[in-house]
């Protein structure tokens, strides 16, 4: 079932959301209410990041999880981030700095008002458990300077050689035992209980199973989901404050049932304008989306009958479809393995392998890269990735450019032209293949 809603201040045309999207929106709204109410309820707040976040461990200490990137995304979707970015640049931050950072800094300078219109509380602690993106470290330095609170650093080795070694795991577990847990105990006043952690990890694994089923449903033709634009909604609960909870289990069961109904009915994804028409192109996408013009960006795809069947961005908070599950039998080791395995901690050969495999497994027509101006963690090496995947799969690849939450770097005309040219390339490739089959 789909429900039509008209967001406040939106133009005349209503937005269509499927029930799981509405459910996810309600979950996020409830979390922001809990977060902004922390000064009244007495709950303590910890700020951390999406890749490699230790939500199950954080919950063991009754701490409320605040995610700065998610705040920046929410500002982008609400078209507030542009003003925040300019404010940060006025303060002295460079034009080339990650716009998530500048949106966050600008939001703080403007009163730190969350998406529910209420002030976000100052964190009691900062927890950085992932360093594949160097910007996160600098971002934390800025937050530490602003909030003057306890800062906890869990160093995650980069997978430069393309594998996780026993030494890496042991190195991280030692930090968790000797530094992270004692500090969380001191900040929260709650004693660590490893059995409590095991229970949360069990719940995580259950929700992860259903998420993988949903993501892999895109192997069906037509795909019942869009694994990039729709995928943004799907990953929200598990990549943030809900992994390890009964709410996450319930949400992903609900989502899986909804997707299975779409498969049974032979339907494609739900778009902001209703059910997508005929599926013409199946794409794999590398790189984050643009959030300031999210709906307009998505429309460029579904207007052409293009659906994204797999994406790298929906793996920044965990590569569950490659087999990883949180393991309650090895609670601290599994936290370390999770941090090590996130997409942006993987070297370029690993990223190339993943994308090339997605093209084959999901029977995609090719690879599209959305290169984000201010995100070095994704953008570095993308031209090499594009050439290598194209060579390996024989499928055409293309390159477009935008930004995360800075509206100045979204050129609708330029992106639309490039997409149209790319779809023509796919058609030519198909025609050539058909001629070859005919000649044979």
Structure description:
By secondary structure, the chain is of the alpha/beta class. The chain has one domain (13-439). The protein is 52% helix and 12% strand. It contains 17 helices and twelve strands. The chain has helices at 19-36, 38-41, 55-59, 68-77, 81-91, 99-109, 134-147, 166-188, 194-216, 229-239, 246-264, 294-302, 331-341, 348-361, 376-379, 382-393, 412-439, and strands at residues 2-5, 15-18, 44-47, 63-66, 125-128, 150-153, 270-271, 274-275, 281-286, 306-311, 366-372, 397-402. The strands form four sheets. It has a four-stranded parallel sheet, sandwiched between helices. A four-stranded parallel sheet has the order 10-9-11-12, sandwiched between helices. Strand 7 (270-271) and strand 8 form a beta hairpin. Helix 5 packs across helix 6 (99-109) and helix 9 runs antiparallel to helix 10. The chain starts with a strand and ends with a helix. Residues 1-12 have low confidence and may be disordered.
Distance from N terminus to C terminus (CA atoms, Å) equals 47 Å
Mean pLDDT: 93
Query: Any idea how many domains?
Result: 1
Shape: globular
What is the topology?
Elements: E1 2-5, E2 15-18, H1 19-36, H2 38-41, E3 44-47, H3 55-59, E4 63-66, H4 68-77, H5 81-91, H6 99-109, E5 125-128, H7 134-147, E6 150-153, H8 166-188, H9 194-216, H10 229-239, H11 246-264, E7 270-271, E8 274-275, E9 281-286, H12 294-302, E10 306-311, H13 331-341, H14 348-361, E11 366-372, H15 376-379, H16 382-393, E12 397-402, H17 412-439
Parallel strand pairs: 3-4, 3-5, 5-6, 9-10, 9-11, 11-12
Antiparallel strand pairs: 1-2, 7-8
């Amino acid at each position: 079932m789909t429900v039509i809603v008209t967001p406040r201040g939106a133009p005349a045309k209503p937005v269509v959301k499927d029930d799981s999207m509405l459910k996810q929106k309600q979950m996020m709204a409830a979390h922001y209410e809990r977060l902004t109410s922390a000064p009244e309820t007495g709950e303590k707040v910890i700020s951390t990041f999406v890749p490699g976040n230790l939500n199950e461990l954080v919950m063991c200490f009754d701490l409320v999880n605040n995610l700065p990137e998610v705040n920046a995304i929410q500002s982008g979707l609400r078209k507030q981030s542009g003003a925040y970015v300019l404010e940060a640049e006025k303060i002295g931050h460079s034009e080339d700095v990650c716009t998530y950072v500048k949106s966050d800094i600008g939001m703080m300078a403007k009163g730190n008002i969350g998406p529910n219109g209420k002030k976000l509380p100052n964190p009691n602690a900062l927890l950085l458990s992932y360093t594949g993106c160097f910007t996160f470290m600098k971002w934390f330095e800025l937050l530490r300077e602003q909030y003057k609170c306890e800062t906890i650093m869990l160093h995650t080795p980069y997978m430069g050689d393309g594998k996780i070694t026993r030494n890496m795991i042991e190195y991280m577990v030692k930090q968790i035992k000797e530094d992270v847990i004692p500090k969380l105990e001191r900040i929260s006043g709650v004693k660590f209980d490893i059995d409590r952690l095991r229970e949360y990890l069990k719940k995580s694994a259950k929700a992860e199973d259903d998420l993988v089923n949903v993501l892999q449903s895109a192997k069906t033709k037509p795909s019942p989901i869009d694994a990039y634009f729709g995928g943004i909604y799907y990953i929200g609960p598990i990549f943030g404050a809900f992994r390890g909870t009964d709410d996450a289990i319930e949400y992903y069961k609900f989502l899986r049932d909804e997707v299975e109904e779409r498969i049974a009915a032979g339907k494609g994804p739900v778009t902001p304008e209703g059910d997508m028409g005929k599926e013409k192109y199946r794409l794999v996408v590398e790189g984050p989306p643009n959030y300031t013009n999210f709906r307009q960006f998505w429309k460029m795809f579904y207007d052409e009958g293009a659906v994204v069947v797999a994406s790298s961005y929906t793996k920044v908070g965990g590569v569950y479809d490659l087999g990883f599950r949180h393991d309650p039998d090895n609670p601290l080791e599994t936290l370390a393995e999770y941090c090590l395995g996130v997409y942006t901690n993987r070297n370029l050969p690993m990223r190339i392998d993943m994308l090339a495999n997605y093209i084959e497994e999901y029977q995609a027509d090719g690879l599209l890269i959305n290169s984000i101006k201010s995100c070095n963690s994704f953008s570095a090496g993308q031209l090499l990735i594009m050439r290598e995947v194209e060579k390996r799969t024989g499928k055409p690849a293309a390159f477009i450019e935008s930004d995360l939450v800075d509206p100045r770097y979204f050129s609708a005309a330029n992106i639309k032209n490039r997409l149209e040219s790319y779809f023509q390339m796919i058609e030519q490739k198909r025609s050539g293949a058909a001629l070859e089959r005919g000649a044979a």
